[in-house]
Sequence to fold (275 residues):
Amino acid sequence: MNKVELAPDSGPSAKFGMFLRSLREERGWTQEDLALGIGYSPTHVSAVETGRRPPTSRLARELDKAFGLERVFVRKALDLKDSALLEGFPDYVAQESKAAEVRLFTLGIIPGLLQTTAYARAIAAAAVERDSITQQQADERVAYLARRQENLRREPSPVIHVVLDESSIRRPVGGSEVMAAQLDHLAEFAKLPHTMLQVTPYAVGEARPFDLPVNILTLANRSLMSYAESAQQGHLERDSDAVRPTLTAYYQLQALALSQSESVALISQLREELP
Fold:
């Protein structure tokens, strides 16, 4: 059987899986041996070790029993649940930091790469108020976003295409002062030589090809990747053939959107209307 290489930086589940594999191999156990001892299938053990399946609390308890440990796996599973980032997102960011071209589409919110720190903090603070994340997680998210933005200031600069649904620039976040600075930042972003910023107006209606956020990467070798996420987990699609229809739809979206000059004019108009 070919041994799957692990990438612990791809997310918290991957780190858990690497820890599990290292302990299992130290004991000289196969995945089948461990599966038999904890009452799970070898396929399940393999999925956890490679980070494809997050560990449950029950699995963590069974692992502690099998290895004779005192809540070691239980604590690691709890830490995983408390992670500030969605499972799979660090894997996407690692590829984004190497991409030759980045294409984004968002609804209702400015994408992270274009957020000011104040805007990002306002989004994170709202999540803390809802008790969705802790204050520590909020701080981690804002700090992580700053590092992600810095990665895209590298040389040579990646080409960044951004299409915003009109809802993204009309939705007030953080109050007038924060929103004004954010709209100013968008206008400055559009001036950069390696960027393209467009707004899809409400008038496009049902012709808009996407109802969910879209992230598409073109790597230096021209291969394609895309990223999508649910409320609990993100997924990085690495198959170029699978991504190509999404890229085609993105081109169609750009054709429907306002031009960059028209988009900046709309952003400037909204900026002037703020109290």
Residues 124 and 138 are 5 Å apart (CA to CA). The domain at 89-112+154-273 is CATH 3.30.870.10 (Endonuclease; Chain A).
